[in-house]
Design brief:
The structure holds 2 protein chains of 2 kinds. Chain A is mainly alpha-helical. Helices cover about 70% and strands about 0% of the residues of chain A. In chain A, helix 7 (about 130-150) packs across helix 8 and helix 8 (about 165-190) packs antiparallel against helix 9 (about 195-210). By secondary structure, chain B is an alpha+beta fold. In chain B, strands 1-2-3-8 form a 4-stranded antiparallel sheet. Mean pLDDT of chain B is about 85; it is low at about 1-10. The chains are: A mainly alpha, B alpha+beta. Chains A and B meet through helix 3, helix 9, helix 10, helix 12 and helix 13 of A and helix 1, helix 3, helix 4, helix 9 and helix 10 of B.
Amino acid sequence: MSDITQTAQRTFTPQPALAPPKELKGAVHWARTNLFDGWLNTVLTLLSLLLIFSVVPGLLRWGLLDAVWQGDSEACRVEGVGACWSFIGANFRILMVGIYPVEEIWRPVLSFLLLLGVIWLTVSRRVRGIRMVAFWLVLPFIAYWLIGGGYLGLPEVDQSRWGGLMLSLLLAAVGIIVSVPLGILLALGRFSDSPVIKISCVSFIETIRGVPLITILFMASVMLPLFLPEGMDVNNLLRIQIGMILFSSAYMAEVVRGGLQAVPRGQTEAAKALGLPYRHIMFYVVIPQALRHVLPPLIGRCIALFKDTSLVLIVGLLDFLGMLKSSTQDSEWLGFEAESYVFGAFVYWLVCYSMSRYGQHLESAGPKNNN
Amino acid sequence: MLNKLTASAGSNRFRLDLVLQAVFLALIFYLAYSVFHNTQVNLENRGIESGFEFLDKEAGLPIGDALISYTPTDSYGWAFFTAVVNTLYVAFFAIILATVVGVLIGIARVSRNWLVCRMAAIYVETLRNVPLLLTLIFIYVVVLSSLPSARSSWLLTEGILLNIRGFYFPKPLPQDGFGLVLFSVGLAVVLCWGFRRWAKRYTERTGQELASFRISLVLLLGLPALTYLLTGQPLLWENPELKGFNYRGGLSLRPEFLALLLGLVLYTAAFIGENVRSGIQSVSKGQVEAAQALGLKPGKVMLRVVLPQALRVIIPATTNDYTSLVKNSSLAVAIGYPDMVSVGGTIIGQNGQAIEIIGMWMAVYMAINLLISAFMNWLNARVQMVER
């Protein structure tokens, strides 16, 4: 017995791992396997380096080293300077909130802080489930009241003065929050027993998905007033918001449909065997599983909706892109289009990329399926 | 499935369902009727006539970039049709170029070359996370307006040049006998098709491979070239020439078209690149290793083993991207390329017949998208694995 244990102990004593051979580590080896692996890769690497060295130094000089950060437009018109970031500084307020009255500016700022707060609560998982949904549902109403005013002592700010990034975020947030439940309803309608409901839902979804968002926005902006009874007036912003919601919900419905199809049939059968009524089967068993399946494309649709808000510029709303465009036509600051659009691209990119990273995080952190 | 959920409930439930459906149907009919009625009343109040009679009237609107012959004295119908052709024109080339760029980006994304892989990733993440409209306006306002004026154009070679007015290239002028050359091209294609069929059967019968690619290449290029030389080179080129402040003659692409094409290609290529990447990554590693063990070269492994299998994942996703490309071409209105949304918008501004124009837009876009889906589904059916 003791012999065996001794032998075992001797055999199982772990040896310190040998360091890899010298030629298999370090920067040179890394470069050799990842960059200069065969003639094709070497050529590709050299071409890429050529491209990088012909583009990046110029961009860096323009955007950072030679850029003007402070001062008026005269400082930017000096020969040989790069980007004029003071243009962004001078127009920052209208880029963010449009022509919102200066003395009321704390209201959009407070709404934005509330938005950041709810985002923080969601991302850090301090609130979950039904309470998180409640926060998100209440937020747009509070933001709408804060920005618009008119009730409870806040002076009213006309919607024609809303603009900038604030308007883009508002259109996107309300659009997402309304179109997700609407999309779920439409998707359920697609699976309905009733041919009437089924055909209506399918034709709505397919019609909307077949045409560009611009035509829907034109329809909302030009045709909706024709559809409404005389004397009933819906303002332009709300009309366009409705157009965006209809468009987005058709796409959401297709995403949710994919999720519904992925829920195993046994789940509904088991729930039915328990005697649950239809609405309980749907809301407690099927929909939660379906949504979990399609979280990544759902986030993708949210990103797409935020990007699509830029199209309202074409029907006359001054959203973020609209403000970027009109600020370049300011007589004092003519000729700084590049700065304006680069800054705009950066802001859009920051928002969209953060959303997509959060989506990827949810995908990897969410409860795993064990089927 | 889900719709079987409520089916087996008792007959009471069934009757309730019928009632609910009837109520829903009545609601839809009521809504449709009231929308119709309101529209009638509103149109009458504003003095807008409805119907498609306006299509025969003289349009009087200029179209800056018409592919088919159009003058402002033509009818509204012809103006709209010209715009539809413009939409198809830009969408067709954008789809082809976006596919080429997208496949390259997708392959670069899975490249073993670290630098190439990173650069492709940066490209994809940048283009995908910025609205297409911003990209389009950026290209049109910033990139294209930094091109030189006509007098100091960038000459790529004789007759091909780029300046702020657009991209110019020589225009072919067919002479007598050019029909024969075209005929020989057709003949070469038919011969090539017949040869490949025969070569396939020959290989199956004897097990011997023919260099069929090279032979068909010789056939496709050689026969037309030979006819071209024998008929005395019946093709002349008209070069664009500087006259006054502008270039005349030759063919040109205007900056609006170039900006729209470039924007659509760059944006869609990022999405197609991701489809290609996920397709390639879906092919199991064993397939690649087996192909390598057979001694195939890396290029052949990609072309003959990986890509054909990846296509099953790539095609359905790419169908969606093609249809969104067509729909996205409507953003032309923002940079002034006369596509059908831009021209239709002008018509609405002139006569207020929004319902008809929007209806026509929807019909044309739906038709194009259905055609694309039908073609891609046919393609998809061809690449599906035949399961035993």
